[in-house]
Design goal:
single chain; 434 residues; alpha+beta; Lipocalin; ten-stranded antiparallel β-barrel; two-stranded antiparallel sheet; elongated
Length: 434
């Protein structure tokens, strides 16, 4: 019992370990420092919202670095949550419903499980349900004090589990719906989400001072979004229904290694996830500026590939289809088709094949855009790849940036040593809705 009660976090890099490290640093007066993926274990970080670690830090300050104290505290919070559920059921329905709901929660295996874990779920559930109970209490007799209480509780919930930010618009809708005939109460009710936002202010200011950027909650959102939306979890049966850490996705490994801060890493992960969601097995259309090179070699190459003449606003279409571990990228310029095959390699590079030519790229993020940096080229003879010397290798430069909504701004330039520009295209494409 003692061993289990005082057992340390399961492993380095786990959620438990990250919460604990930040909490212990806070208790020692070192600030909110801890692990940041890709940047070591001792950083001024915003990777996770601070609510859980702040409470643990207070307990560590009083009782020392004792994990048993945290688990016992979580059990107490879980018991209080049962009482709050009873209060919600009583106010919203009846005494019998409140009692029934509280009994179910007290016996729910996951609630019991989380009470014994060094995780944020127990505290986040308590703050959120306390907010719901306070809102119902406010609805019975609206007042500024009751609005402040509900707003603070929602703020604490968001600082413990950032996903609760989704409640802000719902809180406004509830305020209007509940008090439509009592206009004076609407303003007090709308104050609830506003006060919850004010609760985030110290954290937002701290993040701006550390990172020089507006970070309202945390920088882990990109990892979460990309971890659940990528080629591995979508097409590898072993990972169906799972989430994986983004650096385990081969084609993105190099791109993450190039990031200089956790904020840049978060933005890259969001961009890659959106790109994957928008373009994988999809179609994008738009207009691009298409240019042919003026040299004889460029003109002969474009003629051989049946590419169109230079045009300022040429209709373009990109269709991506998944085929096993590779993707078929079919680009149509006007009525001319250009097809390449892309696949991620174990070393983190991206390979793109056009006929017998194969190009390899490192993915990097620069100025908010995804940049393809050529890492080599070769000629494929069956499965054999013959590297081309740099002095005769065609050069491909590509850049892709978000254009808002479902759009992407792309810029591609292909040149050859001694001949200069062969072709380029640049413009915005929008993903077609199914």
């Amino acid at each position: 019992m003692k061993t289990g009660l005082n057992a340390p976090p399961s492993k380095l890099g786990s959620d438990e370990d990250e919460y604990d490290t930040c909490a212990w640093n806070l208790a020692q007066g070192k600030g909110y420092r801890g692990p940041s993926p890709g940047f070591g274990r001792d950083n001024l970080t915003a990777y996770r919202v601070p609510g859980t670690s702040l409470i643990w830090a207070g307990l560590y300050k009083v009782f020392g670095h004792r994990y048993g104290v945290i688990r016992l505290f979580h059990c107490l919070v879980g018991a209080l949550t049962v009482l709050i559920i009873h209060d919600i059921g009583r106010r919203a329905f009846s005494e019998r419903i409140g009692l029934f709901a509280s009994v179910i929660y007290s016996l729910w295996p996951m609630a019991i499980f989380y009470s014994a874990q060094l995780l944020s779920e127990t505290l986040a559930t308590f703050w959120f349900l306390a907010y719901v109970a306070a809102s119902l209490w406010f609805a019975e007799r609206p007042s500024l004090n009751r609005a402040c209480l509900a707003g603070l509780l929602l703020g604490f919930a968001m600082l413990t589990k950032g996903g609760f930010v989704i409640m802000l618009p719902f809180a406004v809708v509830w305020a209007v719906w509940q008090f439509w005939v009592r206009r004076s109460a609407i303003l007090l009710a709308v104050a609830i989400p506003l006060i919850s936002l004010l609760t985030l202010t110290p954290w937002i200011v701290r993040n701006y001072r550390v990172f020089g950027a507006f970070i309202p909650l945390a920088t882990e959102g990109g990892d979460t979004l990309l971890g659940g939306n990528n080629s591995v979890v979508a097409y590898n049966p072993e990972y169906y229904g799972h989430q994986i850490f983004p650096t385990l996705i081969p084609e993105y490994r190099d791109a993450f290694a190039s990031c200089s801060s956790e904020l840049e890493r978060d933005q890259l992960a969001v961009n890659l996830a959106i790109r994957w969601l928008h373009l994988t097995d999809g179609v994008a259309t738009g207009r691009v500026e298409f240019r042919r090179g003026r040299g004889l070699a460029a003109r002969l190459t474009c003629w051989a590939l049946r590419l169109p003449s230079s045009a300022m606003r040429l209709e373009a279409r990109l269709a991506i289809a998944r085929d096993g571990e590779s993707e078929r990228w079919a680009r149509t310029f006007g009525r001319r088709l250009l097809v390449t095959i892309q696949r991620g390699l174990p070393d983190g590079t991206l390979a793109e094949r056009f006929g017998a030519l194969e190009f390899r790229f490192h993915l990097r993020v620069a100025e908010g855009a995804l940049t393809y940096i050529q890492a080599g080229a070769g000629v494929m003879v069956g499965r054999l790849r013959i590297p081309l010397p740099r002095w005769i290798s065609p050069r491909v430069e590509a850049r892709e940036a978000s254009a808002g909504g479902r759009g992407a701004y792309v810029r591609v330039r292909i040149s050859a040593p001694g001949f200069g520009l062969v072709m380029s295209y640049e413009g915005c494409v929008q993903v077609e809705r199914p």
